[in-house]
Amino acid sequence: MSEVEGVVQGHRDGHGFLIPDDGQPDLYLSAQEMHAVMHGDRLRARIVRYDKRGRPEGRVLEILDRKKRPIIGRLLLESGVWLVAPEDKRYGQDILVPKNAIANATAGQVVAVELTEPPSLYSQPVGRVTEVLGEIDDPGMEIEIAVRKYEVPHRFSAETLSQAAKLPDRVRAVDMKNRVDLRDVALVTIDGEDARDFDDAVFCTPHKQGRGKTAFKGWRLLVAIADVSHYVKPGEPLDLDAYERATSVYFPRRVIPMLPEKLSNGLCSLNPEQDRLSMVCDMLITEEGETYAYQFYPAVICSHARLTYNEVAAVLANTHGPEAARRKELVPHLLHLHEVYRALLSQRQRRGAVDFDTVETQIVCDDNGRIEKIIPRTRNDAHRLIEEAMLAANVCAADFIAGGKHHSLYRVHEGPTPEKRTALQAYLRALGIGMGLSDDPSPGEYQAIASATKDRPDATQIHTMLLRSMQQAIYTGANAGHFGLAYQAYTHFTSPIRRYPDLLVHRVIKAMLGNKRYQLDAAKMDVPVPPKRPGKAKPINPASASTEVERWEVVGAHCSANERRADEASRDVEAWLKCRYMREHLGEEFSGTVSAVTTFGLFVQLDALFVEGLVHITELGGEYYRFDEVRQELRGERTGIRYATGARVQVQVSRVDLDGRKIDFRLVRDGEELRPASKPLRDKTGQAAPRKPTDQLAEVQRQDREVKASGKRAKAGGSGRSAAAPQSPVAARKTAARKSSEAGKGRKRR
């Protein structure tokens, strides 16, 4: 049997998987094999057998490298023994802590523990407390746990803080040399109410030039982006810390920034009425929404106002309203921005870009960091206006770099793989959607399906399946286009305060404007080897990256991995907050919609709270449900009742697992849209035979619950069985089903 090397990924149930370096299928490790290893360890294993589905199972041969990061968990005292129960259940084992190694922690507190003795086949791991985070109920504790659990860098180095402190408090005259002065242009920032860093400002005015057939008529659109590259130089401490983070991480009520606050909220933030350095993308947009010409140049600007999305939307909706009266001098510019937005939007539709209507939620917290409410985040014309302006600038940046044949990072989003395309086609056919996909689908085909199904009750699930069939967007040095936005070349230029790839793109553009070439420094190669992605070639080892193309690939993989890490940490915190919030609603009933169907149950999103939980398949009644993978539904074999996405249900909050970030519901009442999936039976005359009344199913479910309860009482009453002992739960369930069936037949005969 072959041997493989890789990294262990633990499972909360005790077993684990070895993720091979070469991208081969994951290797299953039994709970016994996991006794001597922990989640994150690097090891070599041998494939010893294959299960009946062809999945490999392995045996650990050698532990190559132990993960040395601290482990976060709760300090517990059980029978006089101190131990730490890891917050990340993938570790699978509690860590013993000697009494003299608990520092100043007390039982129940959240601590960081460092291993002093690794686990073995016959002993638990031993560690010592290195940091006491506080009580589990302390405000913001869930964020402190998440940043350590996902290894998010959250402390700047002393060298970085020292360098940031030496930066000036305002733009100096020497900084403005060789820059276009745009301080008299009415550029404005448009962001959310809670935004603190402003990295983009916009301005638009009608523009005409030329005569006859070559005449241009449209708009001049300026997108000014904070010039972070002026202050963050390659190889300096600021740059090293920014590269390690690669992105800012956003949590409810807190941000882990990529740059120190003096830059992110000060020098590089386009605050109103303050001079700021920027890189400008100056574009001419035709009446059809096409980019006629563009140019990039460094500039100095002064934002004329800090506007919010809701404020701009109110001005556009009513130019004589109170919001417009307060911003009277800016109203004409905002109207021009809206005009160019509509032109860009029409071009987006002609281009066939995919645009799904998805509901995003916003968590509103109190002063203690607990959820007060969860509300839908509505997108208005102001949101879309800024989005289209940023897209236009990003496309110009990608075109400029590609035209200059310079290496850089592109934002690549590829279409469906052949396997995912085939699965999606089968799903659409099963739903009776006549619109299919070609062998080489275009974004327009996706958008046509999305538009045709947007009014269906299962539109959310259809759009989700469309999204899942496409590949994840990544940063890479090789341009392969952006499928979702239907662009031949696309990059990120507009957020250098919070994304490192944007900072690199700024450096490349600046080098090209000066007729130079930007070279990646060697420090960028000092990163871990990224895992292999399914369907992709094995990633380049950073230590062996010798060519410029390979170096950009390494940087792209690093930025993509850290972007995913930030998303996982944010989702973990939101899940914890929602579980904590739902603990206050245990036993309450809510109406909801089935958002997803799996082999083990239904995921239901509550209408009022925008929280998702699981109705396990055991809560659906006393019959066997078969999962239809093509239709994505559960179907009862006896009753024909089906549970599909979009169905309306009534549920009760039955259990909240804070450690596992899980919420369980119990089905209370089926909605009207839950109906038998099979075709109506017909008699010899061709007439539809009457179905069993819907209350019969309820009766079967009631009897099922009684049978379960009687079985539990019988077990509690002792192991002795008398002649009058109750039937076993299985036999009783069969008896109840038979009586119910006979009763139904009797009603038919009558």
Please give a structural write-up:
- By secondary structure, the chain is α+β, with helices and mostly antiparallel strands.
- It is built from 15 helices and 31 strands.
- The chain has a 5-stranded antiparallel β-sheet with strand order 3-2-1-4-5, with no helix packed on it. The chain has a 5-stranded antiparallel β-sheet with strand order 8-7-6-9-10, with helices on one face. The chain has a 5-stranded mixed β-sheet with strand order 11-18-17-14-13, covered by helices on one side.
Task: Describe what is shown at a glance.
With 750 residues, this protein is of the alpha+beta class.
Q: What is the topological layout?
A:
Layout: E1 3-10, E2 16-20, E3 27-29, E4 42-50, E5 56-65, E6 71-78, E7 81-86, E8 95-96, E9 110-117, E10 126-134, H1 141-149, H2 158-166, E11 180-181, E12 188-191, E13 200-209, E14 216-226, H3 237-245, E15 249-251, E16 254-256, H4 261-267, E17 275-286, E18 291-302, E19 305-308, H5 309-317, H6 322-326, H7 331-351, E20 360-365, E21 371-377, H8 381-403, E22 410-412, H9 418-430, H10 443-452, H11 459-469, E23 474-476, H12 500-513, H13 548-582, E24 589-598, E25 601-606, E26 612-616, E27 625-628, E28 633-636, E29 642-644, E30 648-657, E31 662-670, H14 694-716, H15 729-749
Parallel strand pairs: 11-18, 12-19, 26-31
Antiparallel strand pairs: 1-2, 1-4, 2-3, 4-5, 6-7, 6-9, 7-8, 9-10, 13-14, 14-17, 15-16, 17-18, 20-21, 22-23, 24-25, 24-30, 25-26, 27-28, 28-29, 30-31
Helix pairs in contact: 1-13, 7-8, 9-11, 14-15
